[in-house]
Design goal:
single chain; alpha/beta; Rossmann fold; N-(1-d-carboxylethyl)-l-norvaline Dehydrogenase, domain 2; 2 domains; five-stranded mixed sheet; two-stranded parallel sheet; 11 helices; 7 strands
Amino acid sequence: MGRGIARTALRHGFGVAIFDVNVSAARQVAADAVGSTDEPAAQSADASLVVAGSIADAVAGAAAIIESVVESEPVKAAVLREAAQAADPDALLATNTSTFSIARLAEAGGCPGRLVGMHFFNPAEKMRLVEVAIADGVPDYFVRQCTDLAEALGKIPVLVKDSPGFITSRLGLILGNEAMRLVASGVAAPAAIDVAMRLGYNHPMGPLELADLVGLDARLNNLNALYPALGDDRYRPPQILVDLVSAGHLGRKSGRGFYLYDANGSKLDAPVLTGIGGSE
């Protein structure tokens, strides 16, 4: 997600600084972003992308900071704490979480009343929606900064009150869970479920294709956060998902999930028989 957000910002003429604990990964992101960017806006004098040596270096002088690390509350809180301490006090501080409470993250990250949720969608370069999640006590000017930034990135912001899962995760995870349970109980194959949702409901991508795209491990992390937060059995991780992740089948990035993929991440025609999971 950080890669996609950086590309999007660069394409719209922003100066971008990125930091990752894996320096080689950050450098590869920079190379990919610059190499794939040919829009006129990206050629402006203001557009640039640098790899920072630390979080403090990355946020120095920044008007907006977007945290987009793994969906782990302690990890996000640690990154946000370091960013908030080093950033300009008027800089927008946003988290790309899809499930966690913004207020709780802000408290854990030492930035209460300042953090805004800015939930991009995968792939960030193409998906136009950004959920802007607002916790109590956040000033209106931070919210305006967030919506203005989203629009400047070519996105459409949707405001939502801070609540676990916001709008899209609350609805999307239920759909994905039920699709997985249909597979596990033998009602239909993954391809049949995805075709039915694409054609019957005009979804651009079926729920199992989407789960493979975002990563089955990321999907499991989301459910493990949302299920206890809401106490609703509909968000309990399906056993087939737990078993796939345990076996290292994480979706497109690992070459196997509910489908098989080649080395370039393209879906193969051959159906995958998971041999994993059972009815619930």
